[in-house]
Amino acid sequence: MGRHSCCLKQKLRKGLWSPEEDEKLFNHITRFGVGCWSSVPKQAGLQRCGKSCRLRWINYLRPDLKRGMFSQQEEDLIISLHELLGNRWAQIAAQLPGRTDNEIKNFWNSCLKKKLMKQGIDPATHKPHTEAYVKEENKTTETITTTSMQIPSITSQGSSFLISDSSYYENNGLSLTEPSREIFNSKSALDLDPLFCYDFQSGYNLPINNYQSQSQSQSQFGLNSSYGFTSMPSLTNSDHANVSITEFSDNNSASKISSLFMNDQVKESNSSNSSNMSTIYPSQMTTTMMENNNAGFSWEGSENKLDPLFQFQVNAIKSEEFGTSSWEEGHIQTQNSIDFSSYHPLTSLSEDLTEANFDAFHHI
DNA sequence: AACTTTATCAACCGCCACGAT
DNA sequence: TATCGTGGCGGTTGATAAAGT
């Protein structure tokens, strides 16, 4: 076992993805959603293994990805979470909306690790270098004293980076608080920031505003079309409640991590009535998806497969010809426009999207 | 300008867990 | 129970860009 059968097949492309491949994969997933990855390459016409497709989607094409530098707040959060979780990048990434485990792992290995070491902190333990280490250092470099190291004050309980107050999230854009949520609701998807559109021609994710102006001038998506992906501002507090504390091996970790999120949860329960945003929770989402599943695509176990990070918003103002067309796969009634923002926050790229009869790249 | 070193990050590899048969 | 297929994860590699000499 171990090696996937698909990887054993010859003639499969490897290496960097071309814009054409990206487009094929993107179109396929937006049409059919995320199902069985092993069948994706064939269905999408790609000479890749399913695993490679999955990785490309998760790490690059997924529309909710946040691009750009890590903020100081994200950086601190990664350090805190790493102290609690170690190299469990997927779990760490789950707490940073729009960031992938790969991205965080790279950031840790290339930046944060060195940063901590410079501060005299052992990145593995998050504690100042041990006495043994210091002695060893003294042996080899007697002229250098350990006092020259800048060791930040760290309690015996853990690093000073630990955040136990939900205000951290509220103040740093890592959570969508009620006021910000209202702003979000009142704005069109195209006004949100950061917003990116993937441009298959350039191979870059373009800020949506740029893309908007571009599409206005060049009608990339058709005369009356605009197409935007946004990383939704955050998880909602219901997501916070979904933090799986059972995965932590020790109770301290569990309580620490839960303290990061539970305050918001309480706050949310007090203020949820004021929210204009209709929220679909996983169970509802599954029901919705199953009810709408007319394309013959299997969503078995979709409840479990919902990616809590997957927040997808599309504003699709389709041209008339586009709006009335139907899927080749058929059996789907079309709608002229669907507001995906109502599927917040636990929206997978689902059949709902498929049902929107939405193929942006027809118009490229 | 040419070459070397370092940093970054996308992608691959190999392993594990789990469900289906 | 054993085997197989698949999804998911973390470690690692290799290509490229940027910085340094």
TrEMBL record:
Organism domain of life: Eukaryota
Myb-like domain: which residues? 9-61, 62-112
Where is this protein localized, as stated in its record?
A: Nucleus
What InterPro entries does this protein map onto? Answer: Homeodomain-like_sf, Myb_dom, Plant_SW-associated_TFs, SANT/Myb
Keyword Nucleus listed? The answer is yes
Quote the SUPFAM superfamilies the UniProt record gives. Answer: Homeodomain-like
Task: Report the residue ranges that make up the HTH myb-type domain in this protein.
Answer: 9-61, 62-116
Select a single GO molecular function from the record's annotations and give it: DNA binding
Pull one GO CC term from this UniProt entry.
Answer: nucleus
- Return the Gene3D superfamilies for the record: Homeodomain-like
Pfam families associated with the record: Myb_DNA-binding
Alphabetical keyword list: DNA-binding, Nucleus, Repeat, Transcription, Transcription regulation
Question: What is the protein name for this chain?
Answer: Transcription factor MYB 86-like protein
Instruction: Identify the species of origin.
Output: Trifolium pratense (Red clover)
